[in-house]
Amino acid sequence: MTLVMPAFASAAHQPHDAQRIELPDFDHERVLVVTGARSGLVIIVAVHSTVLGQALGGARLWAYDDWQDGLADALRLSAAMTLKNAAAGLSRGGGKAVIVIPRGTTLTEEGRSAAMLDLGDAVESLGGSYMTAEDVGTSAELMAVVALRTAHVCGLPPEQGGVGEPADATAEGVLAAIRSTLQRLDGTDDAEGRHIVISGLGNVGSRVARALSAAGARLTVADVNGARRALADQLGAAWVAPDEALTTQADLLVPCGLGGVLTSATIAGLRVKAVVGAANNQLADRTGARLLAGRGILWAPDFVVNAGGVIYLDAASRPDADLDGIARRVDGIADTVTRVFADAEASGITTLEAAERLAAERLHRPLTV
Q: 30-64, pLDDT tens digit by residue?
């Protein structure tokens, strides 16, 4: 079935600042909820906005207690993709797909393939309004299965003519944002000797950890997967439990796991100067931005910080792809973060409001390809 959803963000949830450019009403243009014919899994595709062009966002394969939890995730993530793509200067709208695995279910390889074929059918049914890619729980190889059912997919393996997974570019963007944040804090972007806590050592977090270790940072790391302690040992990093990572005294906290980690309770317990990381939707709710500012903790908005992957997927998938140019655009995330910090200070608003203002400017002035 196809659901037309109500407004995602009401006026009550908008920042109260007379100077900021008002964001458009974040109504989802279309939300598709289907039961996969092959897999029997609930598949959700949320197209939030196509104002700037075809919506682009990854497909998440994840376990939820209820399919409605997956729907809520898709709505949040797709809205964040609109902001991410706009703030990054892309001619792309925002969308996201979520494939709901019932909690406690283990998918076989055949089950995963069936789910990807079902996802391909769902994406194809939207007539090109949404392009999917890999995300949490999926991969370039699984996107190749999606491609058997739709052309509206990117990030396929290089050996199949695709551009591969975007984790390298995402990590490079996060590192650029970290440099900008360090510069803002202490007047130098050098990570040497800085104590940095990284929570989440997946595809992106592990790359960030290796790069920061090589740059001479002192690392404390955490992950829900105990097997990833081997990387901590390899890098000479301190290993702590995920909860402890949120109360460790350090220069930076770099969240690279799942979202919602910055609740009012965790913000109250933070002992860092700044938070800058790859995780999507880090704030449990938008009031967290003011709580962080109130404690003097600098927060680099996640949808600006983690845009490297989508910049890469968008640009590398074009016939005239320029890898050096793409690398420069990803590195430009540092300049965007710097602008957000400066705008927030000059206007007396949170960094969240400043980043939303930047996205709103571009949404009000659609870009040309």
A: 999 999 999 999 999 999 999 999 999 999 999 99
Distances (CA, A) of 210 to 205, 225, 261, 334: 9, 18, 23, 19
The C-alpha atoms of residue 171 and residue 95 are separated, in whole angstroms, by 21
What interhelical angle do 351-364 and 67-87 show, nearest 10? 70
**Consecutive H or E run containing 239:** strand 238-239
C-alpha distances out from residue 204 to 51, 128, 198, Å: 29, 29, 11
Single-letter code of the amino acid located at 33: V
From the candidates 96, 112, 152, 357, give the one annotated as an active-site residue.
Answer: 96
Which residues lie below 8 Å from residue 280, measured CB to CB, with a gap of 6+?
Answer: 77, 80, 258, 259, 302, 303, 306
Per residue in 302-325, pLDDT (tens digit) is 999 999 999 999 998 888 888 889
Quick: pLDDT tens for 14-23.
333 333 333 3
**313 Cβ neighbours under 8 A, 6+ residues apart:** 56, 133, 154, 155, 163, 166
In the predicted model, is pLDDT for residue 340 greater than 90? yes
- Rounded to an integer, what distance in angstroms lies between the CA atom of residue 347 and that of residue 362? 19
Is there a catalytic annotation at residue 96?
A: yes
**Residue 310 parent element (H or E):** helix 308-316
Report the alpha-carbon distance of residue 320 to residue 245 in Å, rounded.
43
Mean pLDDT of 194-214: 97
- Residue pair 80/94 in contact by the 8 Å Cβ criterion: yes
Residues 367 and 28: their CA atoms lie apart, in Å, by 20
Higher pLDDT, 127 or 12: 127
Percentage of the chain lying above the pLDDT 70 cut: 92
Residue 27's SS3 state is strand
pTM for the model stands at 0.85
Which DSSP letter does residue 153 get? B
Q: What is the DSSP letter of 66?
A: S
Q: Could you say which DSSP state residue 228 is in?
A: G
